[in-house]
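quick one
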Amino acid sequence: MSETSKRVVVAAPRGYCAGVDRAVITVEKALGLYGAPVYVRKQIVHNKHVVERLEQRGAIFVEELDEVPLGATVVFSAHGVSPAVHAEASERGLKAIDATCPLVTKVHHEAKRFAKQDVEILLIGHAGHEEVEGTTGEAPEHITLVQSPDDVADVEVKDPEKVAWLSQTTLSVDETLETVRKLREKYPLLMDPPSDDICYATSNRQAAIKQIAGHSDLVIVVGSSNSSNSVRLVEVALEAGAKAAYRVDNASEVMDEWLEGVESVGVTSGASVPDELVEGVLAHLESKGFPPAVEERLTEESLVFALPPELRKDLPKNALRH
Ligand code: 0O3
Ligand code: SF4
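structure w/ iron/sulfur cluster:
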């Protein structure tokens, strides 16, 4: 195999979505406005480099609010929180800034609306994920978690005529469709969410790597191990025909043996991943004899969310964005 036949294709869209961009900027602006430390409940986004960089600037990441001193500023992560967390923050007199992605908040609203109509909600998502905990907290008595198509057989509802499904925003589109298909087979009157819960960024990143994976000997996904959408990209790449696919946090984790005999490499990254980490992987591949990457873009993304109102009210008008 000659080196000239090698190629590297980098997927687009990849990396930061609008919700992650907003959440990271929220912490940065809060540090600038109020000074360090600024507390953040949970990882602001599931990326260890982002968290480390913000820690260096004075952010303190905590698991729960009882670790935050009374009266301090705390940012809620992009994945959302349950109403109980909002209540605890106000009880403790904390200055809370909610960096929940508006597309996660949309799912919270759907959950509240169905629950108000006494509709039972089958929430497709992963146990223990912060987004699932936050959404479930909106209507715990109405929500049952369904983790995969295999779970559907064991699902039980009180009234099969009053049942709806919702989902986590970062799941595999294809697997979720399969779960819904099986749920509908079981409950023909199953109600849909008013609009897709899996967000545009998750769908676009999966569709973009699908285009590339089928003609890749190797797919490298940049993202942290606890990033649901990044881990899904590895699965999607394998399902779409990649001969091998691995997740790495950064270039230092790319193993030499993965590259042995490999001609075509596809590269992408999760929604919480700064693009400099992808650039690091591309530079590493070049150092191993691969040519510069060619980008294959599926679609453009232009969505930008306004910063949280709790922050905007303290920001000078000319500093509302970057
Ligand atoms: O939800 P996931 O583990 O994929 O989270 P990330 O990696 O922080 O990506 C951002 C997604 C998000 C905040 C919820 O949709
Ligand atoms: Fe929002 Fe989607 Fe990004 Fe999650 S992945 S933060 S829902 S835009």
